[in-house]
Amino acid sequence: MEFDLLNEPVMQVFLYAALTAVTTGLGAIPFFFIKDISPSLLGKSNAAASGLMLAASFSLIWEGYNVGEWMTISGMLTGVVLVVLANRWMEGRSDVKVTDLVGGKRKQMLMFLGIMTVHSFAEGVSVGVSFANTMEFGIFIAIAIAVHNIPEGLAISLVMVPQGTSPLKAVWWSIFSSLPQPLMAIPAFLFVEVFKQYLPFGLGLAAGAMIWMVFADLIPQALEKCEPKKIGLWVTLAILAMSAFQILISY
Ligand SMILES: [Zn+2]
User: Fold this and answer.
1) Contact 154, 7 (CB under 8 A)
2) Distance 179 CA to ligand 1 centre (A)
3) How many angstroms is it from 20 CA to the middle of ligand 1?
4) 198 burial level (CB within 10 Å; 0-12, 13-18, 19+)
5) Which residue, 202, 196, 105, 206, is CA-closest to 159?
6) At what angle do helices 167-178 and 9-24 cross, to 10 degrees?
7) Distance, CA 157 to ligand 1 centroid (Å)?
8) Whether 57 contacts 184, CB under 8 Å
9) What is the Cα–Cα distance from 186 to 188, expressed in whole angstroms?
């Protein structure tokens, strides 16, 4: 019998999960065509990123509830405590060289990237768990997450590019934020029972941290550049777009 590496289940899980990481980079593409970024665009960008993140947070919570409600809630509590502590730690340091790393000015950008990366761990686990169910179901979930990652890459770029990060770097950091997906999918696929148990905790943790970030950082920043009415409009439009998008990919 011939050994075909590409058709091994573990390899398939890895390839599909790697695809989800690559598609995140697609979210940065609009910024290759936008040449000058005005302060009001920065405000609207932050508002749109907030809407995308809020919608994503509540779908993480919903997904967590399907497996374990209290586990999701305790994850959220842990997420918000961790993000507050991380923020306090970061504000006390003057030696964080953000500009060299991401090409933008604000320290909070690192935290934003950190949160997006952490939430990918949880999503990588759900990809792996889905593949352990059946291969067909795994492929379905991997494609759904790959598509859902495009607006998340857009959210990352909306935050980073107006601050001075180049579109190319935004592509890279978007993909980077999703690298935990292929990495976590494999152990979750192999040890599904263990990972499934803690999945709601991870989903809740990501949601708690994301919601905090929206109101503690993104919205106040948007308010510096843009009228509250416009921010309300852009947040709502982004939530609406993300929700419509999720309905479309669930068919
Ligand atoms: Zn996500």
Assistant:
1) no
2) 12
3) 10
4) middle
5) 105
6) 150
7) 15
8) no
9) 5
Q: For the segment 192-230, what is each residue's pLDDT rounded down to a tens digit?
A: 888 888 889 988 998 998 899 899 888 998 898 889 999
State in Å: Cα 249 to ligand 1 middle. Answer: 14
Q: Label each residue of the chain as H, E or C.
A: CCCCHHHCHHHHHHHHHHHHHHHHHHHHHHHHCCCCCCHHHHHHHHHHHHHHHHHHHHHHHHHHHHHCHHHHHHHHHHHHHHHHHHHHHHHCCCCCCHHHHHCCCCCHHHHHHHHHHHHHHHHHHHHHHHHHHCHHHHHHHHHHHHHHHHHHHHHHHHHHHHHCCCHHHHHHHHHHHHCHHHHHHHHHHHCHHHHHHHHHHHHHHHHHHHHHHHHHHHHHHHHHHCCHHHHHHHHHHHHHHHHHHHHHHCC
Q: Residue 146 class from Cβ within 10 Å (0-12 exposed, 13-18 middle, 19+ buried)?
A: buried
Taking Cα atoms as reference points, which of 140, 143, 120, 151 lies closest to residue 242?
151
CA of 226 to the centre of ligand 1 (A): 27
Residue with tokens 């993000």: 83
25-75 pLDDT, tens digit per residue, is 999 999 999 877 777 887 888 898 899 889 888 988 998 999 899 999 999
| Residue 123 Cα to ligand 1 middle (Å) | 7
- Which pTM was predicted? 0.80
